[in-house]
Design a protein that fits this description.
The chain has helices at residues 3-9, 12-24, 31-37, 80-93, 111-120, 142-148, 162-169, 173-186, 213-228, 244-252, 256-265, 293-297, 315-318, 330-333, and strands at 50-54, 97-101, 124-129, 152-156, 198-202, 234-237, 280-283, 289-290. The N and C termini lie far apart (40 Å). Helices cover 37% and strands 10% of the residues.
């Protein structure tokens, strides 16, 4: 029985505990040791620049690398009451950026409300989009809606080759993704001078580190433009985190320790200052607060003296808090570093 099969039968917190125990048995040293050696312990948070809302696990896809374990069979979804708490918190705290993710966040019944109200509050809004959702008949209005409200789109496209994309995300996904990208291009996304940012996201197909982001961005731009006439603004490379489905894959292949050693060997202390947990606050579908989306998936909540829920948000109590870390954090500090906004250092260690 796989880790994901257990997840279906057990409480999500119990499953998160199981994943943490697996990672704690890894032969690599605790992440805290790397921070101490780098003179960066304890890791503390600065002002909140981004409120990342995970609206739930409902998705139209089931991707092999998904650390959220999202899919069409999931039912976890943020309630209207919790959405209200998030919007109230934004109004009180004046956080400049709202980063909306899932699952497929567009499938949430209050996605439009979140976008409209966040923009009304003056927030920059990012939609973490899987692209294929924009081709589903029920959601084909969304590209125009996103353009109307100047929403930045960060879209997953793990390769510019059909075979590799479909291997990771399912048969037919590449063609659907191209269809969505063409529609976004028609609306000005990805073109210079429009202000409509379209960022693509690459993650490796297996237990390796991403190649240099600038080089890969050049490859994507050349190939997508020449093969399909697709334009985009920029490319983010993101390291696969040893969590959920990717952790399951590593365990099945007996490569977890190999992968963890690779991450540890590539630890780059220059990435620590830019870690997203220092400026981002993550909210789960039940309104609970976390230092980052990855801690959220492992149920590693905030420090004990910090407010645990979005309804209790107090920015003053969050600045300077000690960030909870674990061995999975090596994924964010390896090589050029990794975050929801791509690499942290253009020149790797």
């Amino acid at each position: 029985m796989t880790l994901q099969s257990l997840l279906r039968q057990a409480d999500p917190l119990a499953d998160a505990d199981h994943q943490r125990r697996i990672l704690s048995r890894s032969l690599v040293p605790p992440f805290e040791h790397a921070l101490i050696e780098a003179g960066a312990s304890p890791l503390t948070a600065g002002p909140i620049q981004v409120l990342q809302l995970n609206l739930g696990k409902v998705c139209n896809q089931t991707c092999r690398h998904c650390h959220v374990d999202a899919g069409p069979d999931r039912r976890e979804s943020m309630s209207s009451e919790t959405v209200g708490h998030c919007l109230d918190a934004l109004a009180r705290a004046h956080i400049p950026t709202v980063d909306v993710t899932g699952g497929a966040p567009e499938m949430h019944p209050e996605f439009s409300r979140i976008v409209v109200e966040s923009r009304r509050l003056g927030c920059h809004v990012i939609d973490r989009c899987n692209l294929t959702i924009l081709t589903v008949p029920r959601y084909r209005h969304l590209p125009a809606f996103l353009a109307e409200h100047d929403v930045e789109i960060v879209a997953s496209l793990p390769c510019y080759l059909e075979k590799n994309v479909d291997a990771q995300r399912g048969d037919g996904v590449f063609e659907q993704s191209l269809s969505a990208l063409r529609r976004l291009n028609e609306l000005g996304y990805g073109h210079e001078g429009t202000g409509r940012r379209l960022t693509l996201v690459y993650n490796p197909l297996g237990p390796t580190l991403p190649p240099p982001q600038p080089t890969l961005e050049d490859d994507y731009r050349r190939e997508l433009r020449a093969r399909y006439g697709i334009e985009f603004t920029s490319l983010y490379t993101i390291t696969n985190m040893p969590i959920s489905r990717f952790l399951d894959d590593l365990l099945r292949a007996d490569r977890l320790d190999e992968y963890m050693r690779r991450l540890v060997a590539a630890f780059n202390p220059a990435t620590v200052d830019g870690l997203m947990c220092r400026s981002t606050l993550s909210v789960d579908w039940e309104g609970r607060l976390y230092d980052c989306d990855f801690n959220q998936m492992l149920s590693l909540g905030l420090a004990p003296d910090a407010p645990p829920h979005i309804r209790d948000l107090d920015v003053a109590k969050l600045i300077g808090r000690r960030i909870n870390v674990g061995r999975h954090c090596y994924g964010c500090t390896a090589g050029q570093g990794s975050s929801c906004t791509g690499v942290l250092q253009l020149d790797a260690k």
